[in-house]
Design goal:
Layout lengths: L1 H9 L23 H20 L6 H13 L4 H7 L4 H14 L2 E5 L6 E5 L1 H25 L1 H18 L12
Antiparallel strand pairs: 1-2
Helix pairs in contact: 2-6, 3-6, 4-5, 6-7
């Protein structure tokens, strides 16, 4: 029903209740702001995950950071920022609470100027606890939206990211 409504809304010439795709010559172009629609979706999905992750005392960004350090570490902060598509200052700001909690450490690298991010044993435990909450959030989202819709959403996002990669991107990266 929502898809039909979206199709009808896409055509300013479609009579109310008519399916614009079925009307010969009907304009089927997006109406409204894509950025606004995506931000609405991201806020709603983000809240869903944040509520679940809060039960283990982490933000979703912290879980993601712990997961990346576990998978890629020990790793230089600059390389971690690049892998996470975030700028270095955002990474530094997001690492601080994890260091303070004892879940990651910043240790000397190969030379006196370099540093490496390591996950600690307590960080591994926190990440394992958080993964159970992340999985609960993911399964609940799959149930709410339907697995087919989630798979289609993932494919659409992947395709869009690939197509948008050709556009110029000012700045170092995205905040997560």
């Amino acid at each position: 029903m929502q898809a039909e409504h979206a199709l009808n809304a896409a055509s300013p010439t479609a009579p109310e209740g008519a399916n614009a795709a079925a009307m010969p010559g009907a304009a089927t172009r997006p109406q409204g702001c894509t950025n606004f629609k995506l931000r609405q979706l991201l806020r709603r999905v983000g809240i869903h995950y944040d509520v679940e992750m809060a039960q283990c005392g982490l933000k979703t960004t912290q879980y993601s950071l712990l997961s990346h350090v576990l998978k890629l570490g020990p790793i230089r902060p600059g390389d971690l920022a690049t892998a996470m598509k975030m700028d270095a200052s955002t990474l530094t700001r997001n690492l601080r609470p994890l260091v303070d909690a004892g879940w990651v450490t910043l240790e000397a690298g190969a030379d006196a100027r370099s540093r490496l991010v390591h996950i600690t044993d307590t960080g591994r435990e926190k990440r394992a606890e958080a993964q159970r909450h992340w999985k609960a959030a993911q399964l609940a989202l799959n149930e709410t939206l339907g697995v087919e819709r989630v798979l289609a959403l993932h494919a659409l996002v992947d395709d869009a990211l690939e197509l948008l990669a050709a556009l110029p991107t000012p700045g170092a990266g995205e905040d997560e």
